[in-house]
Amino acid sequence: MILLVSSNKDPASLNIVDQILQRYPFHRALENFQSNPVYTAFFNKKGVTLIRLNDSLVDAQNLPESFPDAELIIFVSRHSSQSGTPTLTVHPPGNFAGADFGGLPRTVSVSPAAAMSDTLKKLAFFQQKFGLLRYEVSFEVTHHGPSLNVPTMFVELGSSMSEWVDSKAACAVACATISAIETFEFKPTREAVIGVGGTHYNKKFTQMTLNGEVIFSHMIPKYAVVNMDASLLKHCVERSLEKVSEVLLDWRGIKSEDKPDLMAALDAAGLVYRKI
Q1: Would you list the DSSP string of the chain?
Q2: Is the pTM of this model over 0.85?
Q3: pLDDT tens figures, 205-251
Q4: Nearest-CA neighbor of 131 among 169, 161, 163, 170?
Q5: Nearest Cα to 94, choosing from 227, 189, 1?
Q6: Spatial contact of 54 and 10, defined as CB atoms under 8 Å apart
Q7: Could you give the count of Cα atoms lying within 13 Å of 227 in the half-sphere of its Cβ?
Q8: Rounded to 5 degrees, what angle do the CA atoms 179, 183, 184 make?
Q9: CA nearest 107: which of 53, 57, 157, 152?
Q10: Can you tell me the distance from the alpha carbon of 151 to that of 108, in angstroms, rounded to the nearest whole number?
Q11: Burial code of 112-141, b = ≥16 C-beta within 10 A, e = fewer?
Q12: Cis-peptide into 146, omega within 30 deg
């Protein structure tokens, strides 16, 4: 079962869910969750359950206890940034240091690389189809909670209230999410990579994915490289749904003073890496 999750505290999340329910054949279930209606549907023989939480999505650390059959969890969410740039984003959740915004310290969720790749490509497709040319389509690096033992990703609409209430942009997120669900399939032989370096919105990693070169699991920005040791690097590899074949280093996007310790940590972890 695939679990789609929104929040009553999040206007973009509710907008996206409204678009999903208007356009796709979900049915009201008999039960409620947190006093909110539950909806179900089937896409390509895959069961999907759609729920709303009363709390913030980043605080859903205990959610899998209520849905133990979930094989993929997708949070549809608002995205916020100081720049206010209109953005359609995808990212895996988790923390490389403390847990200031939900989740657990130094713990990341299982990252579904293929599902994130498919969603990113679909966001780019619907961005063009719906004429959302002022919006950027981008990966974000791994950040914030929750830190779940289930493959988990966020699909987000940002970056301010004018975008959160944009029905056409919300429709793009809704359509991209459902399209990715329709094609979701875990293939044990498919390989992913870990990305290290660059900014919070790594354009290299985004473009490589859109070009079909690789699929990214966890992505570690330059501001978090200082926290990376062999243990945390191996943790990111282990918390990837697909097998990680190598680590790609955005070499110019890593601080010079952090490079020696990073290289030592990669060697200690026994990971194959390549500079790009």
Answers
A1: -EEEEEETT-HHHHHHHHHHHHHS--EEEEEEETTEEEEEEEETTEEEEEEEESS-GGG-TTHHHH-TT-SEEEEEEEEE-SS---EEEEE--B-SS--TTSS-TT-BPBB-HHHHHHHHHHHHHHHHHTT-TTSEEEE--S-SS---SSBEEEEEEEESHHHHT-HHHHHHHHHHHHHHHHH----TT-EEEEEE-S-SS-HHHHHHHHTTS--EEEEE-GGGGGG--HHHHHHHHHTBSSEEEEEEE-GGGS-GGGHHHHHHHHHHHT--EEE-
A2: yes
A3: 999 999 999 999 999 999 999 999 999 999 999 999 999 999 999 99
A4: 169
A5: 227
A6: no
A7: 16
A8: 110
A9: 152
A10: 10
A11: bbbbbbbbbbbbbebbeeeebeebbbbbbb
A12: yes
Can you read off the two tokens belonging to residue 187? Answer: 């293939």
Of residues 175, 153, 185, the one with CA closest to residue 46: 185
pLDDT in tens, 240-269: 999 999 999 999 999 999 999 999 999 999
Q: Look at the chain and count its residues.
A: 276
Residue with tokens 């993929």: 72
Sign, Cα dihedral of 77, 67, 45, 145: positive
Q: What's the pLDDT tens digit per position in 34-93?
A: 999 999 999 999 999 999 999 999 999 999 999 999 999 999 999 998 888 999 999 999
